[in-house]
């Protein structure tokens, strides 16, 4: 269905330029919102709905209200077939848990309210309760409603009114907890996971589900390897790349980053690990994309992490050095949501240099003749689960291409919605059942049905956690699979 004149979104190609204006909106009166302040930069929506009497833009909320009003009521968010569209609607079958219904709730709240207290409207709490910020709506909705960012603004506004809950501070603050208090955090999680009394206490006091283990930090964080397997050719003939080791790879699964380092080195690249700028206030704390803060509505914290990233990569932006990430939600947040923090035009330049590992390898193979020496892997057909962000940003094509580098490798892709873990969503006591229902739609049955020695592939940290919890089986990042396939024999 073609949108009526004035009701469509501007071209997505214009989005970086619009967001990169650098406007900081966290001040009263910003955004033309009748005194209401917004925490994110909504300037990309400034011209939405102009000249369209039927756009239904709410009376308050300025450009944020315009972002809400892009919904054209196509009801694609009520699809239940293949794809990743709205997992909350898929498990409930209730239109009140669709993107369209959430838009209606925001419109009602913004029309009824005269200031930011509109965000205390209980209708919004009910509408957003099962939203997992999967980005499906931005990809599959004809109007590209970005409910993930709409939810972030809603949470930030809600925190301003009611304060930030303790559990939100704990989950959102993972980058700081792991960076500053790693040993204490690891001990606390280990004790909690092994004590029924502590799991029950955590559920009662903090709302952390007693039915699920919390991921434990690894015994040691990631450390750049001093030696990695290399083929017998001149060192680094393909130039330098930067490996962005996110919070979860650095502290929870350092073997993923180690494997990526080995793969890139074997492929002929000089690998440098991303480090904070020397002038950074916390030079020893690893860089972070800020996504845990965004998804929990802690926008100022997210903005601080974004500023750290930009400062660290300023020289790399000028040199156009490729920056390679491993966790889909982290790397793709830098490429997408960083625009919403109003950090200036450097965000657009940085985005052009950011690649997931599989994207970078596929690009180098297609455009620059990369050929990796890989050997066949034993075992039956693998099972591949795509992270929501891989699907929403079109990365699965690159994933399939790179898996095709492995001689004779075959796999099936699970046609599924969100895994249901969705960061901290599946850890929240009130959301545990919904989390598992999302996983049981297709993901967990497929993982249980796979032969015991079949490789299970999932690039998302939360996805791997959900798969292990629900099926008792471990899935692996594509970097580990590629490392195992490296042919290290002399050429």
UniProtKB/TrEMBL annotation:
GO molecular function, one term: iron-sulfur cluster binding
Pfam families: Fer4_17 (PF13534)
UniProt key word Transcription regulation: no
Superkingdom field: Bacteria
Residue spans crossing the bilayer: none
Domain 4Fe-4S ferredoxin-type: 120-150
Keywords: Iron, Iron-sulfur, Metal-binding
Protein name, per record: 4Fe-4S ferredoxin iron-sulfur binding domain protein
Organism: Xanthobacter autotrophicus (strain ATCC BAA-1158 / Py2)
């Amino acid at each position: 269905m073609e949108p009526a004149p004035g009701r469509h979104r501007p071209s997505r190609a214009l989005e970086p330029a619009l967001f990169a204006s650098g406007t900081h909106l966290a001040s009263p009166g910003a955004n033309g919102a009748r005194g209401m302040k917004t925490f994110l930069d909504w300037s990309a929506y400034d011209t939405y709905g102009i000249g369209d009497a039927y756009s239904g833009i709410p009376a308050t909320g300025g450009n944020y209200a315009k972002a809400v009003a892009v919904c054209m009521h196509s009801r694609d968010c009520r699809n239940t077939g293949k794809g990743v569209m709205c997992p909350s609607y898929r498990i409930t079958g209730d239109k009140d848990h669709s993107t369209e219904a959430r838009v209606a709730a925001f419109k009602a709240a913004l029309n009824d309210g005269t200031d930011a207290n509109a965000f205390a409207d209980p209708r919004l709490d009910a509408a957003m309760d099962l939203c997992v910020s999967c980005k499906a709506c931005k990809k599959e909705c004809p109007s590209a409603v970005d409910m993930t960012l709409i939810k972030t603004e809603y949470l930030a506004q809600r925190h301003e009114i009611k304060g930030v809950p303790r559990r939100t501070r704990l989950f959102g603050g993972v980058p700081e907890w792991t960076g500053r208090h790693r040993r204490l955090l690891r001990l606390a999680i280990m004790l909690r996971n092994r004590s029924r009394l502590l799991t029950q206490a955590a559920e009662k006091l903090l709302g952390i589900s007693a039915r699920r283990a919390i991921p434990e930090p690894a015994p040691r964080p990631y450390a750049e390897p001093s030696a990695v397997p290399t083929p017998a050719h001149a060192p680094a003939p393909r130039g330098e790349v930067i490996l962005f080791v996110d919070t979860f790879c650095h502290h929870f699964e350092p073997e993923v980053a180690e494997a990526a380092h080995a793969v890139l080195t074997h492929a002929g690249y000089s690998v440098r690990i991303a480090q904070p700028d020397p002038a950074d206030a916390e030079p020893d704390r690893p860089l972070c994309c800020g996504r845990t803060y965004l998804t929990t509505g802690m926008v100022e914290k997210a903005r601080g992490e974004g500023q750290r990233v930009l400062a660290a990569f300023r020289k790399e932006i000028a040199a156009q050095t490729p920056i390679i990430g491993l966790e889909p939600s982290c790397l793709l947040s830098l490429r997408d949501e960083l625009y919403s923090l109003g950090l200036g035009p450097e965000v657009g330049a940085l985005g052009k240099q950011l690649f997931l590992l599989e994207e970078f390898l596929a690009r180098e193979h297609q455009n620059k003749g990369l050929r990796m020496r890989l050997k066949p892997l034993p075992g039956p057909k693998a099972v591949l689960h795509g992270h929501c962000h891989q699907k929403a940003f079109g990365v699965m094509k690159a994933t399939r291409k790179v898996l095709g580098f492995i001689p004779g490798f075959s796999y099936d892709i699970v046609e599924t919605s969100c895994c249901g873990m969705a960061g901290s969503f599946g850890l929240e006591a009130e959301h545990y059942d919904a989390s598992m229902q999302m996983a049981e739609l297709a993901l967990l049955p497929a993982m249980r049905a796979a032969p015991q020695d079949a490789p299970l592939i999932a690039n998302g940290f939360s996805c791997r956690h959900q798969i292990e919890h629900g099926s008792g089986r471990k899935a692996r990042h594509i970097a580990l699979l590629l490392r195992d396939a490296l042919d290290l024999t002399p050429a």
